[in-house]
Amino acid sequence: MNEDMTPGDIEEMLSGRASMYRMLAQLYFKPLTQEQIDALAALDLAELASEEGSPYADGYNDLYRYLRRRNTGTRQELAADYTSVFYGAQTYEGRAAQPFESLYRYDGGLIMGEASGEVFRAFRQSAVKVKDGLDLPDDHLSFIFEFMAHLCDRALEAVDGGDFDRASRILESQRAFFEAHIASWFPRFKALANKLVSTRFYRGCLKLTKAFLDEEPESMREGIEALSSLGNAA
Asked: What is the tens place of the pLDDT at every residue in 146-199?
């Protein structure tokens, strides 16, 4: 842990984490639009894929290799893959890889299970709610990622205002939510989805997500320790 992290360093970390969560939320929410595909292709994915030793490189390489060959049929191909896997049209040994926490916890295997209620209560406690008109359970991976981005935003606001203790409490809460509602089931979801996706693009998305989530416990720990140090020095 870098004990010399400045408020600016912490803000940069929080901003970067929020941006990654929002990008991942977009990828898992619904089939991508042409505009979203073009925006992803416009990123410097080749450079990101070439970063030696980066845990993200393999995932970014898949995205880069796929998108550099995009054509008029790319959107339809990605939509078909997304629909087949994440809408549950296709199964592996009788199981669909829909991105709902309830399908992977408590051995229930049912949408709108106990986990959905837990996530709903966590959202309500933080005074957030899923946007009206989105007819999906709260424990959809996209909503969970958006919530994590929202908590990063709140912590960022606290740091910007010099309230390091509040920022630390937000990150503690975020860490608990992460352990309960992401780390507890994402590996099972990824393993199943990997058996079903057909495009290199979505294989890359799954790799990228895993690489990011693998780093999250350490990122949150570092942030909490740095904020505690700043709070004690204030």
From this structure: 999 999 999 999 999 999 999 999 999 999 999 999 999 999 999 999 999 999
| Integer Cα distance of 96 and 90 in angstroms | 6
Structure token digits, residue 79? 């939509």
H or E, element range at 113:
none
CB half-sphere exposure, 158, CA atoms < 13 A: 22
From the list 103, 181, 23, 69, the residue with the least C-alpha distance to 95 is: 103
Cut 0.90: pTM above it = yes
- How far apart CA 110 and CA 71 sit, in angstroms, is 38
Assigned token pair, 31: 């089939």
Closest to 215 in 3D by CA, of 29, 65, 59: 59
